[in-house]
Structure formats: structure tokens, C-alpha cells
Specification:
Bound molecules: FE2/S2 (inorganic) cluster
Radius of gyration: 31 Å
Protein name: Molybdenum-dependent oxidoreductase iron-sulfur binding subunit
Number of strands: 5
GO molecular function: 2 iron, 2 sulfur cluster binding; metal ion binding; oxidoreductase activity, acting on the aldehyde or oxo group of donors
Strand content: 5-15%
Oligomer: single chain
Domain 2Fe-2S ferredoxin-type: 77-153
Order of helices and strands: HHHEEHEEEHHHHH
Keywords: 2Fe-2S, Iron, Iron-sulfur, Metal-binding, Oxidoreductase
InterPro entries: 2Fe-2S-bd, 2Fe-2S-bd_dom_sf, 2Fe-2S_ferredoxin-like_sf, 2Fe-2S_ferredoxin-type, 2Fe2S_fd_BS, Aldehyde_Oxdr_Iron-Sulfur, Beta-grasp_dom_sf, TAT_signal
CATH topology of the largest domain: DNA polymerase, domain 1
Shape: flat
Length: 266
């Protein structure tokens, strides 16, 4: 950088090449105006050179520090996180969300960050078997609990039945919401077994276990998981199949050619 600066500063009109002199003559820059122009050009060149130096510095800089070694840690707390049956001790800023701890520190990036405000459900994981929005959960509060993420559902190389059902029924398009949808669905199976009530439970007085959820109930209970691709019908079908244990057939059908024609003419 010093070399370039020196070169630009030392460059005056006496060092101009023949071609440069010709250009200056052609555009009518002589004497004082030529010296002023050269001075301004030097300043501009300096900043252009500086920017390319900075850019190449940035490009050449080593990859960012490994997740386990954050450079600055405020309000440090040590947390033993048990995730997918593995215990890891992490030094965390006390304000770290479970979502950030999973993604940034444990590199479990299956759990997705959608809104980061508890509104989309993309970050859903299970904590002690219950669904939780990891973006609204402090990692430090999970000490001593069991966290299960989408990476922990398969066993011995076999997908969880809910994962298989999502594949079978095409319960996704872009797949961004899918880890959250699947974790939510798996936890919902257990909620139904425990007999937990929901907004659409008809009779709160009669508490039953092993609930058989209607389609309406499934939709209500899964309403915290948004799918921007609109794969809802297939998600519900996948859930119903695992919940009932029966083969589920689509409840929709392709339009007939007469119906298509009618729609075209209407
Ligand atoms: S990222 Fe947590 S609810 Fe959207
Ligand atoms: S599959 Fe794309 S957001 Fe749900």
C-alpha cells in the first residue's frame, strides 16, 4: 500500500508518457489546470487502489473462526447441551437462542431459521419430546434436557416413519419448512397419545388418551407451521397415514376434461 501511495504522490507532469501528454494536449489541459487535474487523479487513484487492496484482503482472509471458537463472547455461560443423544459442552453468550446454538455452534443446520420471531415454525425441534420453537428458546434453559432435531429422527440408517410418509405423499416442495413440519408432526403424534386438548377439542371435560385426530384437528394443531409452497394437503395426508397406521389416499382428484372445458367457458 505504501509503495502505491508513494508512486501516486511522486507522479507529476514531468513523468507523463508521450501518449499521456498527447491526450492532455488533445483535451486542452495545460499548465496549472494539468497539475490540478493530476493531483485530483492521484487522490481518486489512491482510493481505487485502496479498495482493490481491501477487497483482495477480504477475499484472501482465512475462513471465519470455527464455530467452537467465537472471538467475542459476552455474558458467557457454560451449557451442557444434549442433542440427538450426544452431549456437548458449549460456552455461549447467555442470550444465544437454541436455534443459533444448533446451527452456528453444533453445525446442525437441518433446523431452519425462517422468521426468527416465533411466527413460521421452521425452527421447530423437540425438547423432552415436546415441540418447541428453537428461535424463542434460550439455549441455556435446555441444560439437562433432551433436544431432538431433524438429524436425530432416523435410527440405524432408517428414516422415521413420518419422514417416510412425507416422501411418499410428497409433503414438500422447496423443503425449507419440512424439518419443522416433520418435528412438529412427530411431537403431535405423542400429544395425541397423551390426550392433549387443542382449540378445536369439542369437550374439554372428557379427557381421553390416544386421540384419533380428525383432519380439522390436524390442520389446527399444525397451524403454527407455515409452508410457503402450500404443501398442506400432502402434509396432512402424510400425518394421517402415520397417525392411523392405514394407507392414506389423496382426498383430491384431477379434474375431468368436461370439468376443465366447463371451467374454461365459464
Ligand atoms: S424461525 Fe422460529 S418460528 Fe420462524
Ligand atoms: S415446502 Fe417450501 S415452504 Fe414448505
Amino acid at each position: 500500500m505504501d509503495e502505491i501511495e508513494k508512486w501516486i504522490k511522486n507522479r507529476d507532469e514531468n513523468q507523463l508518457t508521450k501518449d499521456e501528454e498527447k491526450i492532455f494536449d488533445e483535451i486542452g489541459l495545460n499548465g496549472t489546470s494539468r497539475r490540478k487535474f493530476l493531483k485530483q487523479m492521484s487522490a481518486a487513484s489512491l482510493s481505487i487502489c485502496a479498495s482493490s487492496y481491501l477487497t483482495s484482503d477480504l477475499l484472501a482472509s482465512p475462513a471465519r473462526a470455527l464455530p467452537d471458537n467465537p472471538k467475542v463472547l459476552l455474558n458467557e455461560v457454560k451449557v451442557n447441551l444434549k442433542v440427538n443423544d450426544m452431549v456437548k459442552q458449549l460456552a455461549l453468550d447467555s442470550r444465544t437462542s437454541l436455534l443459533d446454538a444448533l446451527r452456528e455452534r453444533l453445525e446442525l443446520t437441518g433446523t431452519k431459521k425462517g422468521c426468527d420471531h416465533g411466527q413460521c415454525g421452521a425452527c421447530t425441534v423437540m425438547v423432552d419430546g415436546k415441540r418447541k420453537l428453537s428461535c424463542l428458546t434460550l439455549a441455556a434453559t435446555c441444560e439437562g434436557k433432551e433436544v431432538t432435531t431433524i438429524e436425530g429422527l432416523a435410527e440405524n440408517g432408517n428414516l422415521h416413519p413420518m419422514q417416510q410418509a412425507f416422501l411418499k405423499h410428497d409433503g414438500f416442495q422447496c423443503g425449507y419448512c419440512t424439518p419443522g413440519q416433520i418435528c412438529s408432526s412427530v411431537a403431535l403424534l405423542e400429544e395425541a397419545k397423551r390426550g392433549e386438548a387443542s382449540y378445536v377439542t369439542e369437550d374439554f371435560k372428557e379427557v381421553k388418551t390416544d386421540l384419533k385426530l380428525s383432519e380439522e384437528e390436524i390442520r389446527e394443531r399444525m397451524s403454527g407451521n407455515i409452508c410457503r409452497c402450500g404443501a398442506y394437503n400432502n402434509i396432512v395426508q402424510a400425518f394421517k397415514e402415520v397417525h392411523s397406521g392405514d394407507d392414506e389416499m389423496p382426498t383430491w382428484e384431477f379434474a375431468t376434461s368436461e370439468q376443465m372445458e366447463k371451467a374454461k367457458n365459464s
